[in-house]
Structures are given as C-alpha cells and as structure tokens.
Amino acid sequence: MEKMTDKTILEERQGEATLLANSSESERKIYIESYGCQMNFSDSEIVASILDKSGFGTTRNHEEADVILLNTCSIREKAEQTVRNRLNAFRKQKSNNSNVVVGILGCMAERMKHTLLEEEKLVDLVVGPDAYRDLPSLIEEVDSGQKAVNVLLSRDETYADINPIRLGSNGVSAFISIMRGCDNMCSFCVVPFTRGRERSRNPMSIVAEAKELFENGYREVTLLGQNVDSYKWNINRKGEVENENEPTVNFAQLMEMVAQVSPELRIRFSTSHPKDMTDEVLHTMARHDNICKYIHLPVQSGNSEILKKMNRGYTREWYLDRIKAIKTILPECAISTDIICGFCSENEDQHADTLSLMKEVNYDFAYHFFYSERPKTLAERKYEDDVPEEVKKRRLKEVTELQRACSLEHHKKYIGTIQSILIEGPSRKSVEQQCGRNTQNAMVVFDKTDYPAGQYIDVLIEDCTAATLFGKVVSK
Ligand code: 5AD
Ligand code: SF4
Predict the structure, then answer these.
(1) What's the CATH number for 8-150?
(2) How many A from CA of 187 to the centre of ligand 2?
(3) What residue spans define the domains of the chain?
(4) Is the minimum distance from the CB of 193 to ligand 1 under 6 angstroms?
(5) What average pLDDT does range 97-124 have in this prediction?
(6) What is the Å distance from ligand 1's center to 189 Cα?
(7) Atom number of ligand 2 nearest to Cα 183
(8) pLDDT digits (tens, 9 = 90+) for 403-451
C-alpha cells in the first residue's frame, strides 16, 4: 500500500489528476484524483474504464469536469485530513454549478459511509472499493437529485475482466492488480475494514493483461496486492484444492507465468508479508533476470513484544531469518521496509530494538510513519495510544536519520559500476536529463540521450545522494 516519495508506496502523496486523451467535446467528463497506495492508483484506472464504457471522458482540469472523484486513503488520520482539505478547492465550483457531481471513492468512503454525506455537504456520491461497477447508475441517481451511496464489500470482486485505462502513465510502467483485500488484521491497520476479505484474481487474466501491456510498449509491470505472498488460485482458505481438474497457482508460480511473457518485461511486486514470504518466491526471483531484485518487506517494529501487540504473526528472529534467506538466495537484492514509530506502549528499549534491526538488515530504503490510531482497529479497542506525540516524532526522526545514512552508503557502493536501466522518461528536475531505475529500484539520472522511454541502457554510476544515482550512458 502503500507515500511522499518516488518509490513504490505513494501514501499521502498529493492527489494526481489523471487524463484520458481525445475526450470528445460533447461527452460528460470525469476528473479523478488518487491518494494513498498504489492499489488506489490502479483502482482509479479501473474506475476510468468503467465510466468510459458509459460514455464519460476524462479531463485533467477539475474546472471543466462534470464529475469530480477523489479516490481516498484512510491509513493514517493525516491522509484523511488531506482529502478533507482538498474538498475545499471544489466548494466554489459546486456553488457556481450545482450540477457538478462530487464523489468520494476508496477507503474513506468505505470507512465513513453515510457519515461523509452528513459531514461534507458538497459530497453527492460515496462509493467503496468493491462497488465501482455500480458507478454509472449511482451517478444517474445523483443526476436525478438524490445522494448515492454504495459501500458493499464483496467476497469475489476482482475486476478481472476490466481493461484498465492507463491514467497519467509514462507508457513504460504499469500496475496490475492481482488480488484485493486483506485477511491479516494487523492491530493498527484499517485496511481489512475498508477493503474487505482477501481474494485473488484469475491468473490467466493477469497474464493476458501483462501480454497486452507488453505489446503496447510497456516494459515493466508491478503486481499489486496487500499481501502478494498469500495470492492463491483454485485453493480455498483452508488450503484445499477447489477444482481437481484445474491447476492451482500460488504467488511464485504466478510470478513465473508473468516473467515468461517476455525477458524484456520487468516484473516488480508489492507488498510482501514476512510471515508468508516463501523460499519458493526467492528461488523464482533468482531464476528470472527480468524479475527485479527488490523486495519491500514491511517489518513495522524490531521488537517481538510490539510485533505481537501489532498482531503481525512473526517475531524479530523470524523476520531476520527471512532477511537471511533473501541475502543467501538473492545476494544482489535490495530490501526496503515500513516502520511505525510510537505504537501503543512502545518504550525506549523497544524503539532501540527497531534501530538495531534496521542496522542489522541495512535496508536500502524505508518508509516510516508515526503511529496514528484508526477507528475500529484492534489497537484502538484494546490498547491506549499512550506514546506522546513529541516522543513519536523524535523516534521517527531517529529512524529517518539512520535510514538516510544507510541509503547513502548503499548508493555509494554503486559508484564505478555499470547499471542496466530501463528509461522511464525525462527526469523530474530537468528536461535535459532522463531517468530510470536499476533492478534494485534505485533511481538513476543521466544526460538526455536519443533513446526513448522503454529502452534498456547501460549507465556508469559516477555520483549519488541518498535518494538518487547520477551517471553517464556507456552503451545501449
Ligand atoms: N499508523 C501509522 N502507520 C500505519 N500503517 C498502517 N496503518 C498505520 C497506522 N495506523 C503503515 C504500515 C503499513 C503502511 C502501508 O502504512 O507501516 O505497512
Ligand atoms: Fe494492513 Fe497488515 Fe493487511 Fe498490510 S498486512 S494491509 S498492514 S492488515
């Protein structure tokens, strides 16, 4: 799931306007902003596809939109506040033109349901993550003067048959959603309440989507799920085969099927869960050069007692054993993590355990947050949010500083090496430069070449910061 950086997780990132080119002048237009995790960005592409079939075009300018949709995140209080602040920007537009439909999609819609309509008067439409097929008729309901809500969660919706419209795409990298929901019930996490039960998508539809993307010039796909390691097809919750005449598919096998689409197609995935990540997954990664050597393995805390309270299903030792397996089977693999600072009752020694684990693992990158209590979660019901805010912030600062130093050291090791980069496009800072990533997901910036986005090139790394590598192209 899910943050402010250019790395895999995009939580609390500014909403992104997305557009579909060639919308005709006469059709009604939607404007979508996405917040939160990659799954939400991927869902917005499903929403655009569903509405496209009902004759809606898209626009990047909310002022010319007939329907404004915010695809929201509830993971931390701040993420919800960002959306509420953003709603203010649409208030004037709505008062000038009451026909404009304003809708809230995603996790906030699911969590707050009808309350959102009461609290935010300009909102007409509240639609949860499993109800997007209903959007065209819900918009019709709003057109007829009513408010419309559908927050039903499903046990089997995967949108497998929907061909997403790639919004704001660089034409090189795309998300493929392979499963939805989460059955883990980590005590701090609102996701099981907002995204419902875990379910996996038909593997053939996943491979077909990857093939189509490749044929359309894409060179990198990220397989998305809240817990990709528990992907399973034709296997029920008890681990039994459902249909004896059909093959079963687990995550390692799925990854292999996608990797076989083409050696020129890079595969990434997010997010892994330490309790479920098998050696089979690691061996599959080792067998295929095009499966990127990068694993995001959220630890959350380095202290076993806190991990137990978090209901993570593993101890510090178990986690370190998984790290050892990665380092043995995939010595070149980059590892990143998520860390929560100041979870209920966390003391200084327990925080020190997180710092010592970070040093031991030596992460390439980490996303860190201070604990934000979420309504209805086990932690909210059972534990007191008793670490003072200034302590949470100080611990977060210590984690951030340690990680910055580790990231810089990792990057320095690349200096003098040649890295194979998939060009993503112009760099953010200058059109005179291009950028792309190596297999370990490190961002590399180099002077502009004649090679287009989607081309693999070799780059000699000459310099770095904690966030970026800089180099010069040495060959195609
Ligand atoms: N407070 C702070 N961080 C949280 N995360 C999930 N729930 C919370 C919360 N209540 C973080 C976890 C997770 C990431 C996506 O967001 O680190 O891995
Ligand atoms: Fe939340 Fe835990 Fe599920 Fe991740 S695995 S979505 S942190 S409940």
Answers:
(1) 3.40.50.12160
(2) 9
(3) 8-150, 173-412, 418-475
(4) no
(5) 96
(6) 6
(7) 3
(8) 999 999 999 999 999 999 999 999 999 989 999 999 999 999 999 999 9
Residue 51: how many CA atoms within 13 Å on its side-chain side?
Answer: 29
| CATH number of the 418-475 domain | 2.40.50.140
Distance CA 45, CA 30 (A): 12
Structure tokens at 42: 């991927």
The percentage of residues in the chain with a pLDDT greater than 90, rounded to a whole number, is: 91
pLDDT above 70: residue 6: no
Asked if domains 8-150 and 418-475 share a fold, the reply is: no
Each residue's pLDDT tens digit, 68-108 = 999 999 999 999 999 999 999 999 899 999 999 999 999 99
Domain covering 173-412 in this structure, CATH number? 3.80.30.20
pTM: 0.94
**Dihedral-angle region of residue 80 (phi above 0 means left; psi in -120 to 50 means alpha; beta otherwise):** alpha
Cα angle 55, 60, 63; round to 5 = 90
| Residue 188 in contact with ligand 1 by CB distance below 6 A | yes
Question: In angstroms, what CA-CA distances link 139 with 54, 88, 100, 146, 466?
Answer: 11, 21, 11, 9, 46
**Does the beta carbon of 184 lie inside 6 Å of ligand 2?**
yes
Please choose from 40, 183, 189, 198 the residue to mutate so as to test ligand 2's pocket, defined by most ligand atoms within 8 A of CB: 189
Non-local CB neighbours of 319 within 8 Å, separated by 6+ positions: 274, 297, 299, 307, 357
Residue 24's pLDDT is 53
Residue 189, ligand 1, Cβ within 6 A: yes
- 185, 193, 227, best to mutate for ligand 2 pocket (most atoms within 8 Å of CB): 227
Average pLDDT, rounded, for the chain? 93
Question: What does the pLDDT average to over 11-38?
Answer: 66
Is there an atom of ligand 1 within 6 Å of 214 CB?
A: no
Does the beta carbon of 75 lie inside 6 Å of ligand 1? yes
User: Tens digit of pLDDT for each residue in 327-371?
Assistant: 999 999 999 999 999 999 999 999 999 999 999 999 999 999 999
- Of 249, 233, 311, the residue nearest 284 (C-alpha): 249
